[in-house]
Structures are given as C-alpha cells and as structure tokens.
Write a structure and sequence with these properties.
1 helix, Neuraminidase, five-stranded antiparallel sheet
Length: 398
C-alpha cells in the first residue's frame, strides 16, 4: 500500500528544548534492538561511545550544539530556502525541485471542513525563481501516486503508477531515451530497491499474504526469487542495496540475504524502521527501546549485523530516516515529549561521527528529501492554517 501523505495534517504544537549531549550507552537487558549476527560471537553491543570509521580506525560519536555545528562536525549550513504552502514532490536536478502547492480557499466553519486547492511548480534554487509545472502524464490513464526510484548509475528509473491505493502498474524507464517498459506483474506493495544497476527487487504483495519477490531487469523481464522464510507472513518493508536484500517482517525482525541465496539471516529484532545506505556498508535502524514498544533509538549496523557504536538518536518517535546519495550524511527526525529530549531534524556526519541539529523543534509531515548530490535537504512541516511549509537547506562544501 503506497505512502499517501495527508495534505492538511493536524499541526503539532512542539515547543521543546534540544538535547545538547546524547548519552552513549547500550540498551539495557531485554530492551532495544538485539543484533543477531551470522557468527555466534558477532554483533555484541559494547559500552564505548566510539564506532569504526568508514576507512578504518575509530571515531568518537558526539552530539554538538547547533551553534557549534559548522566548526565541530563538518556540517555547515549555507542558506535555507523557505516555501510556504509547499511540499517537495520530486527533485528534477541538483538545483531544480518540483513542489506541490496548497492554498486555503475556504476556512473551516463549525459545520464544514476547510477547502484547499492544489497545484505544482518548479523552483530553481540558484535564484529561487518559480514556474508553473504539470505532472508527467502516466501511461494508460491517471494514477493516484507516481513513485520513481533511480538506479545507482542513473541510467534507469523504476516507476510505480498507483491506480488506486492498493494496486500499481510498474515500468522501467530509460533515462537516455525516455522509453518506458511495462512489467507484467500484479503489485500491491510499494516496497523495493535496486539490487545493482541492472536489477530492481520488488515485493509485490497480495491481498492474502506476502506475495512474490521479483528480480526485475532493465529490459522489463521479471523472475521470481526463492525465499525460504516460513516465519515471515508479510513484508512490512523491503529494499535492496549492493547485492543484498533487506526486509522487516510482522514480528519486527530485520533480515537480509545476498543475491542468489534463499535463506535469510536475522540481523536485529525490535526494528521499527530501517534505511540501508546507498553504498551498502551501513544500515540505519530505528529500534524500540522498551519491551512495551515505547520509545525509539537510532542505531547503525554494518552489513554483517554488527552494531557500529552507540545510538545516534533517541526519543519517543523517529518517523523519518534518509541517507544522502553518497552515504556521507544521514538525516533523521526525532520527537520527544520530554522537553530535555531530542526534537527536530538532525544530521549524522559519517566522516566525523558527529550528530548536529539542522532544523530544531520541527516535526516533519512528509519524508525527508535529499537532492541527487546530497548538497540540499528538504524538510516539510505544518505551518499556519495547517498548510505545509518546506525548508530546503543548502549545506556548505566540507
């Protein structure tokens, strides 16, 4: 079932203070994500607040104050583009974004809901000029939602056109020619990802069960993959990266298998959400803290299932996680009712191992959105009259 964001979600009054230090501690016994590595001794979480750097060695994980972020963490903000009544629809290039605009046409009354009108514009962020835009016409009629996932080399795009909230038509588009090849397969889920530059893995789902997992080639051919996992009745989420498939099941287990394998390995339990880094080396995992499922923390795992240092985020809710295309930065949103907790949008810098707040005290209403190079981040929250407000953050080059 595709993600269908509310166009006028209720505004959350969040007047909280940011945490300036994140305690580097492991989950107490019986709580949090439990790593389950391939080896019997692997994946044990330690007390140290250091984690392996991408190129080897150790890095110290720290949370820095907003005012210290430019000099302490390698995260420096150049400027912020603020757009009232707008949400990011799609990045058309590094500098051009298509936005969905929302206007309040008639305020709510005691007996009637408010009335809104919607449109689309393109914004050139080099000078903030805006032009009216039209959505690409879908093949064979209208679609409730269009989702596009570019291949790692950018030569192809996997396209899902949702006819309604349950079924989609699937295509592979050649970016050089614009030609669309339709995939002959029923589809009830939005989950999938590029296994490599030539293969998109798609969890099709069914109305009765988990459905098939298909390997879709760029020429449009689709092959059913074998999956020996009797424990998994449904896929909550499935994606792929650098030759491995990752998915969560109905019991909040995160599992993985390599291309050509049929029996998965369980990486962690108590998983609420996850995002595999584009380079395939790291998986960001939002995990429940307590046995009752209350609270969440954000952990980093290697592809082998070993945790990489302490939690980088903690709160009552971590709704959105998003890696930049180069896997150098991880953006995530945190909400905590406690005024002393983490609140807002934060950025983890993989090179320095630091976490810094970039949009304080904001609770996003849409997924966090990176431009293709990872130099800009779009954050959409609720503003006046429950209209969306988008802030696009330009980061300085390190």
């Amino acid at each position: 079932m595709p993600y269908m964001p509310s166009k006028h979600a209720a505004k959350l009054a969040i007047l909280l203070v940011l945490a300036v230090e994140l305690t580097a501690c492991r989950s107490h016994s019986g709580s949090g994500a439990v790593p389950v590595p391939p080896g019997a001794a692997a994946g044990q979480t330690g007390e140290a607040a250091t984690s392996p750097a991408p190129g080897g060695g150790d890095r110290k994980l720290t949370v820095v104050r907003e005012t210290d972020a430019p000099k302490s963490s390698g995260i420096a903000i150049d400027r912020i583009h603020r757009m009232e009544g707008a949400a990011v629809d799609a990045w058309l290039s590094d500098d051009v974004v298509r936005i969905m605009t929302t206007k309040l046409e008639k305020p709510a009354t005691a007996t009637e809901e408010p009335k809104f009108s919607y449109g689309y514009e393109t914004v050139d962020l080099t000078d903030d000029t805006r032009q009216p835009a039209k959505l690409p016409a879908p093949n064979g009629g209208t679609a409730a939602l269009v989702k596009e996932t570019p291949s790692p080399d950018g030569k192809h795009v996997f396209v899902q056109q949702w006819q309604d909230k349950y079924t989609a038509r699937n295509f592979v588009r050649d970016t050089a020619t614009g030609s669309m090849t339709e995939i002959d397969a029923d589809n009830y889920l939005e989950s999938g990802g590029w296994l490599d530059a030539d293969t998109f893995v798609l969890a099709t789902g069914t109305k009765e069960g988990r459905g098939d997992v298909l390997a879709v080639k760029t020429d449009g051919t689709a092959t059913k993959l074998a999956l020996d996992d009797a424990e998994t009745e449904t896929f909550v989420r499935l994606t792929a990266s650098h030759g491995r498939i990752y998915y969560t099941d109905q019991l909040q287990n995160l599992k993985t298998l390599a291309s050509g394998e049929s029996r998965p390995t369980r990486l962690a339990t108590g998983v609420l959400d996850f995002e595999a880094a584009p380079d395939g080396a790291t998986i960001a995992v939002s995990a429940a803290i307590g046995r009752d499922g209350a609270g969440a923390q954000l952990l980093l795992y290697g592809a082998d299932g070993r945790t990489q240092g302490a939690a980088i985020g903690k709160g009552d809710l971590i709704p959105y996680i998003s890696w930049s295309a180069d896997a150098g930065k991880l953006a995530f949103a945190v909400y905590t009712e406690d005024r002393s907790g983490m609140n807002g949008v934060y950025l983890f810098d993989a090179a320095s191992g630091t976490v810094a707040p970039v949009v304080p005290n904001v609770f996003p209403q849409y997924p966090l959105s990176w431009n293709p190079s990872g130099a800009r981040l779009g954050v959409t929250s609720a503003g006046k009259d429950d209209l969306p407000v988008t802030e696009i953050i330009d980061f300085k080059n390190p």
